[in-house]
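Mods, move this if it's the wrong board.
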Amino acid sequence: MHFNKLPFKRAIKNIMSNKIKSLSFRKGLAALRIFLLGMMGSGKSYWAQRIAEKENMDWMDLDQEIEKETSLSIKEIFAVYGEEYFREKERDALHQLSNYKNIIIATGGGTPCFHNNMQWMNEHGITIFIDEDVNVLIERLKKEKAHRPLIKDLSDEELHNFLSNKLKERYPFYSQAQYHLKGNNISDLSFAEILKQFHE
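Not the wrong board. Structure tokens:
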């Protein structure tokens, strides 16, 4: 198991975990908000649910919350109102999480890239980037394209190019996360190692 801790802010190098704790949340594990970041298909919802069960926390899928709020599927929101409207709803749903504690949130793939969401998440909780290989993402997403507005009309080759380009585009935002987990090395222990300091 390997995980690399990333800077809390770009201007701060080698920031210590206790510093992150003191800046973001001062009330211990019960006050935590954990944001899982990464590309579509990286397993954010899977890990959110799994960690929540093990740590006796709540969990939430941000896209599902937007669907509940609007009574529309993400696909329908994109088709009827467009991406800009969706990103505004996404920001609003994210900010409402300031009222929640002891929760793990699976964010959307593009969530960190709009409306200063990455900064907001770093200021209000733990951010963990799940960095999965593009080829793994492709295999997972081939069967889900019909339900993913950004990729529903893409061939497998186009899907590869799209995901590769999106990852390059989004990486500067993902890389601002406080923790970085490589997909092929992720296990329950990966998250336990991160969270154990907040039990203390």
